[in-house]
Design goal:
Mean pLDDT: 77
Radius of gyration: 43 Å
Number of strands: 6
Structural class: alpha+beta
Low-confidence stretches: 149-159
Oligomer: single chain
Strand content: 5-15%
Distance between the termini: 147 Å
Strand order of the largest sheet: 4-3-2-1-5-6
Number of helices: 7
Length: 233
């Protein structure tokens, strides 16, 4: 069964719902009465509603702003200039997507808004799962602080990059100390094993002979000859 979006009734009058919710007034909507609309834009409006762009638009206004009448003006602009847009309570509009379906616009808005929030939450969780463990500490810190890429502003309650670096250094030093402790414990166990059974103890590695000290050439020392004075009598 096919559905047509953005169409309904206000009492017995057919309407095209231009905005499902008026910005700042979610209990109000903006409609145009299709049966009394000016003829020079009526057909263009209906074609826009039935088009792919109209049916895929969250609000019909988005499609009408990109659809033009014969004089080259956007249909939404003409509706506004000619006073064809009427603000009505959403509870007074009954949406009629087909001949057998009826739903009040305020109920439909509630359902669609809840779906949108649900989709946003699902997408956020998916993004978090996708990026889990794949971000650098600096990037995570910047995202938590909400600062632009490459700009890090430390605050009293959030670590800056310098503090994060110091934390990493402390962790590395702690791991190095633990590793040295394990090496010392390993050496002690080896010594105990050798004391219990010398045969099973691993043989000590032969030390390679020390490399000969480099020969340093020494320049010969020139001897100075001093001529002795001869006394003549």
């Amino acid at each position: 069964m096919s559905f047509t979006r953005h169409v309904g009734k206000h009492g017995d009058r057919k309407v095209a719902v231009i905005f499902r919710e008026v910005p700042g007034e979610p209990h109000m909507c903006l409609v145009a009465y299709t049966e009394i609309i000016n003829q020079h834009i009526h057909d263009a409006l209906i074609r826009c509603i039935d088009s792919d762009i109209g049916q895929n638009s969250e609000n019909l206004a988005d499609a009408l702003n990109r659809t033009y009448a014969q004089d080259g003006r956007p249909i939404l602009q003409i509706l506004h200039i000619e006073g064809q847009l009427k603000k009505v309570q959403t509870s007074a509009i009954v949406m009629t997507p087909n001949s057998t379906t009826r739903i009040k616009l305020d109920e439909l808005n509630l359902m669609l808004n809840e779906m949108k929030l649900g989709e946003a939450a699902v997408k956020k969780m998916a993004d978090m799962d996708k990026s889990l463990g794949m971000q650098s500490p600096g990037e995570v810190a910047r995202r938590m602080r909400g600062t632009p890429e490459g700009v890090v502003a430390a605050t009293p309650d959030v670590l800056g990059d310098a503090a994060l670096a110091q934390s990493r250094i402390a962790q590395a030093n702690k791991m190095a100390a633990e590793a040295q402790g394990l090496l010392n414990e390993s050496a002690r166990l080896m010594a105990e094993a050798a004391a219990l059974d010398p045969k099973t103890a691993p043989k000590a590695k032969r030390k390679s002979p020390a490399a000969p000290a480099p020969v340093v050439a020494v320049a010969p020392v020139k001897r100075k000859y001093v001529r002795k004075a001869v006394n003549v009598t």
